[in-house]
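Exercise 7.
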Amino acid sequence: MKFSNRRIRRAVCALSAALSLGALSACVTNEEQGHPEGWEKVQPAPVAEIEAMVPKDIKERGVLSAGTNPPFAPFEFRDSSHTIIGVEMDLMEAIASTMGLKFQPKEQDFSLILPSISSGSVDVGASGFTDTEERRQNYDFVDFLYAGVQWGQQAGDNISRENPCGLSIAVQRTTVSETDDVRPLSDKCVSEGKEPIEVLSYDTSDAAATALVLGRADAFSADSPVLAWAVTRAEGKIEATGEIFDAAPYGFAVPKGSPLGPAVAAALQHLIETGEYQRILSQWGIHDGLVDSALINEVPIKK
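Solution. The predicted structure, written as tokens, is:
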């Protein structure tokens, strides 16, 4: 079997990673990392009129709890001290502070978060939830960001989503990147008599990104902020390729029709107006897809 020089260099990187911790840290994107350089905690003062909107039981408890499922960097993941951090954690903490509450993340299996909201085990879902019509049947979503899917490649490569057949593409298992992007593209390749895509499914986004960094994959398909985060952590080894597509809103899930939704939205609106919302996202390298107004199920709240 013949290998190109590029493939050989990738193999050397993978071998070096296996042989030494130093080489591993040079190749891996976001494993066991902390806050971004220059990060500062944003903790606004409570706003009386927003405090008055908080449901009585939550106000008496003094804590806003959120179900979350790390790792899904930069939205939520554990740092080297095992603390759950990320842009959603920062946003939720600032929202809770504006509501006069403390914030408590609770790690859960992703599939259990929405049922936990229904049962009252947690107040909010904060785990990279896409606000969809199906989910809106039972929950409301306070939308805080629009994100789409984008591909990454090794720096200097010429990978195109327009010519995907025969490529190996890393994805996080069961995400939109796998179910709605890469696998349908592979099926199309087969239907056209071309070589299928080798879909490399990983349990976490960081593992999928690492596969690209180490050369185990030709490309990495992910939500655009996830890819952007991986690029910043990869020390110039990978880069985005192509445009963002299939943009959709990310939202915090709350019980359907609950007064908690308007309270969370009012707190988010306050953060937008003070510039603290933009500051939080900017610290995590997110500059695109920001909302101009807090939304509930994509509808702007009344100011």
